């Protein structure tokens, strides 16, 4: 793949993650994988995806034992998906917590000063994205492919080194 195409795919990956905004964070709990939905703060300039997390929850221990994680972004209505693998770290960065603290966080904590809040930082290793023209267009293309016996073009799918 040409360097400009690789750069375009990296741009597209970051843009998709930012637009989707919510993700399933997958950690390893011993021999089992665990996933939970979380609000993502996508910051390309920092080469990171951040989450606010609670020190009293198990994911922090899971990440300490196995820092390799998966972050799966999904917009099923728009047929847009990103699966990101990376290395996670749990930080007690009070300035970053205050920066990221927003209205949704108030559902879990009273203020950014709550001593149980931590920042979960995921540094990307690689990703894969699927970006199609949307559900209706995809269904039309699948129906046409079924009639003609061809394979439908359902958009772009790429693996990206981050």
Q: Any overview of this molecule?
A:
This protein is α+β, with helices and mostly antiparallel strands and 162 residues long. It has one domain: Pnp Oxidase, Chain A (Roll). Helices cover 29% and strands 41% of the residues. It contains four helices and eight strands. Strands 1, 2, 3, 4, 5, 6, 7 and 8 form an eight-stranded antiparallel beta sheet that branches. It is globular, with a radius of gyration of 18 Å. The relative contact order is 0.19. The model is unreliable at 136-145 (pLDDT under 50).
Brief write-up:
This protein is an alpha+beta fold and 162 residues long.
Structural key phrases:
162 residues; alpha+beta; Pnp Oxidase, Chain A; eight-stranded antiparallel beta sheet; 29% helix
